[in-house]
Amino acid sequence: MTDLPDEGWPGVLRLATDRDATAVRQLIGGCFVEYEGCVLDPEGIDAWMAAPASAYADKGGQFWVLAEPDTAALMACVGWGPDRPGRIELKNLYVASTARRRGLGRRLVALVESAAHEHGAGEVILWSDTRFLDAHRLYVGLGYRRTEAPRALHDPSNSIEYKFVKRL
Fold it and tell me: Once rounded to an integer, what is the mean pLDDT over residues 147-165?
């Protein structure tokens, strides 16, 4: 299990529990409202949010949350899961609008990359909705490159995603 860095975070960074389900939905739903037509799909693609820790653990991955130190409201989250031998997938990186521009996204990506090293993976992939332009700039700035044609998820948000890849 990846050791969590304990210094310099503006909140409490920890592995998620299934009790975080409501807070995870609130965080990600709060991010989605910034994009026209982007909605949660709790019965479909977002069903994992009902038990986030179990959903990730069942697939051999991890899911972290960053909580406000005083209120325990979630500021950010990120997870990863195995994709294939030697490669993991970064998933569900979200930072609340009130917590942005503090380097949290960059640090959470670094946490996933550290987990990749720990698990013998030399490559990280991720998929990001075409609407999430700020996230794309973050990924490219961290050395990820966009590859392949976009994929359509056929979900209620009509999501189309770009694939990003980074060799570590």
Answer: 95
Confidence of residue 98 (pLDDT cuts 50, 70, 90): very high
Widest Cα–Cα separation across the chain = 43
pLDDT digits (tens, 9 = 90+) for 117-131: 999 999 999 999 999
- Superfamily (CATH H level) for 12-167: Gcn5-related N-acetyltransferase (GNAT) (3.40.630.30)
Closest by Cα among 99, 102, 126, 130 to 30: 99
Instruction: Kindly state the average pLDDT of the residues 139-167.
Output: 96
The domain limits of the chain are 12-167
Half-sphere exposure of 21 (CA within 13 A, CB side): 12
Quickly count: other Cβ atoms within 10 Å of residue 32's Cβ.
17
Angle of the 133-141 helix axis to the 104-118 helix axis, nearest 10: 50
